[in-house]
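Student: Hello, beginner here. Can you help me understand the protein record under this note? Any guidance would be welcome.
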Amino acid sequence: MALMSLAEPNAAAFGREGDEGLLARHGTALLALARASIAWQLSARAAAAFPLDDHPPELRAKRAVFVTLSVAERLRGCVGTPIAWRPLVEDVVDNAAAAALKDRRFEPLAAAELARVAIALSLLSAPTPLPARSEAELLDVLVPGRDGLILSDGRLRAIFLPQVWEHLAEPRKFLGQLKLKAGLAEDHWSPRLAFQRFTSTTVAEPGAGHD
């Protein structure tokens, strides 16, 4: 996971060359787009319309992004897309509004709160399968601090961004909490369990926290 605050606009702070370049060029605009989407949703109570033709081709490519909202560095909402299926600008617009109003862990954001909200955008790489026949085997190949992880077991599914390592640095605890998030027991294991890993590159307004 690579992180850059807009207070320190240094492209070298990104961990992956392609995405670091994209966010160095367009991170400020994407954060402004996320904020505009939230403001529009709060005022008009309707989805914002931002024509794709207003944006450069690389922002119209299909990408997956998570939008995290923080107040005083405390999580206030986080919604995202684990697998790319629509243009990046659309993903930012819709996930920003959803993080503000549809994260079930929080009350919907009030208009008066928006000025105190800091926004972070995490651009995800394409997930790749992470085969493991046992929990020990999975923990052996999981890379703390770098790997985001998607878990699925039948219809149950959960995701942790790489930023979660900042709070759950021990791999077994990281995995156990991910299982709990999916609705499974912390010590659960079954042949149906499947995992995918990914990395992320993040651009953030000053004061942004992480899910």
Remarks:
- Residues 180 and 186 are 6 Å apart (CA to CA).
